[in-house]
Amino acid sequence: MNILSLSEKIEASILTKEADTSREVSSGYTCDLLSWVMAHGREGMAWITVQTHMNVIAVATLHDMACVIIPEGIKVENDVVEKADEEGICILASPLTAYEISGRMHDQGIGAM
Amino acid sequence: MHVLREEFDVVAMDFTTAGEASATIKRLLKKLGVNSSVVRRLSIACYEAEINLVIHSMGGKLILTVGAQDVTLTSEDVGPGIPDIDLAMSEGYSTASEDVRMMGFGAGMGLANMARNADGFSIESKVGVGTRIEMVFRLTDAQKTEGAV
Hints:
The structure holds two protein chains of two kinds. Chain A is of the alpha/beta class.
C-alpha cells in the first residue's frame, strides 16, 4: 500500500507538500523512544510517534523510512514539516490514537518488520 | 591509503542541528558508491555517536576516514568521561536528563547500537577529560546483517 492510500485509511492529512506520496509502505512501527527506533527502524517503514521535534526527521531519514505518522491531532511545527519535505519524508497527521492507527494499518496488511 | 578524510564539529545541547553531520556523512558515502548496507549501518552508528556528543559531551567532533578497504568513524569529545564503560555499554543504562528523555532520547541503547552496527568498535574514556570511540566498517565484506547481535 502506498502512502496516499494509507493516509485515507487512517483519516490523516498529509502535511508535507513535496515528499512522494506514491511510495510503498513496507512495514509499520509504533514507538516514541528515538534510540529504540534507531535500533529497530527499517527502510520503507511507516513510523507512528507522538514526538514532533526535528530529530524525528533525522531518524526517519537515516533509515530511509516512507513516512512519519503523528497521532491524536498533535501539532507539528512548520520548520519540521519543511525539513521533512527537504529530506523526502512524508508526514501524516491523524486524529486517531497510535493504537487505532496501528490496528488499521495491520488490518490493511501492513505488518511489523 | 585514504580516499577521503572529513571532520564535523558537533555542538553540545544543540538539538536543532543534531543529526546534520550524520545526514551529510550518509550523503557523502552514497555519492562515493559505498554499499547501501554499509551506508545504513554506518549512518545509524554515526547518529548515535552524534546524539551522544550533543547530550553528554561539552562539544566534540566526528571524523570520517574513507580508505580503500574500510571506513573509520571516530568520535572525540571534551566532556565528563565515562566512569564505568561496561555499565555504559549495557542496554537500558542511561545517565540522560529528564528533559532529554522527554524528547525520546536516553533509552540507553546508543553505545550498544554503535557496537552492533560496526565491524570493529573500541572505546576509551577518561573521567573529567573526555571520550574517544573508534568504529570500523569494512567495505569489502558487507555480510554483516543489519541490527544482528
